[in-house]
Amino acid sequence: MAAAAETIMEARIARLESDVGHLREDVADIKQDVRALRGKLDDMDQRINGRIDALDVRLTGKMEAGDQRFSDRMDALDQRLSGKIDALQNSFHSTRIWALVLYIAMAGTMLGTMARGFGWI
Question: Which of 45, 91, 103, 120 could form a Cys-Cys staple with 115, CB 3.0–4.6 A?
Answer without folding.
Answer: 120
